[in-house]
Amino acid sequence: MGFIHLLWGFLFLIDIRINGIDVLPDVIGYVLFFLGFAKLENKSRHFRLAKNMSVVMIAISVMSLLISWASVHSWLLYFVVNLVVFVLKVYIIFHLCYGISDMAGRRGLHEFQNKAVQRWRWFIAVIAASFILILLAPLLSMLAILFAFLLMIASVVIYVMMMMLMWEAEHVFQR
């Protein structure tokens, strides 16, 4: 149906770096998102909107990769790019979760419908906490390190939970 592409896309959005190199480049994740949403766009307008924004995220991810390879060390540039990424990622995940919610609601799968909305809420909470940490990090030095570690764990957990939702959606909607 397309949810498996989204599942794999979430895997590539997990930020794992070795010597500063992102071993799971976001651009691959957003290409997979585009492919998944393209298969789902006729199921809900939410998927169509998310598909369109995934094209923008592909471009931003390529730009972000180029900036990191060019070794640009500007806190302001890093902040602006991450702010844009946060906002657009929230937009995509909102439409993903509410697209699933729409599909589930039309089939009378109210428990699954609620699960999709709940995952959205957890996702936005982790994203908001991450953004606040970026803003406060210069002021909180040692405490920020602890919060960053906790948020890294929370981010991985929410991405795994989103992957599980995609797996479940693929199977629930094939029936």
UniProtKB/TrEMBL annotation:
<feature type="transmembrane region" description="Helical">
    <location>
        <begin position="75"/>
        <end position="100"/>
    </location>
</feature>
<feature type="transmembrane region" description="Helical">
    <location>
        <begin position="6"/>
        <end position="37"/>
    </location>
</feature>
<feature type="transmembrane region" description="Helical">
    <location>
        <begin position="49"/>
        <end position="69"/>
    </location>
</feature>
<protein>
    <recommendedName>
        <fullName>DUF3796 domain-containing protein</fullName>
    </recommendedName>
</protein>
<keyword id="KW-0812">Transmembrane</keyword>
<keyword id="KW-1133">Transmembrane helix</keyword>
<feature type="transmembrane region" description="Helical">
    <location>
        <begin position="120"/>
        <end position="139"/>
    </location>
</feature>
<feature type="transmembrane region" description="Helical">
    <location>
        <begin position="145"/>
        <end position="167"/>
    </location>
</feature>
<keyword id="KW-0472">Membrane</keyword>
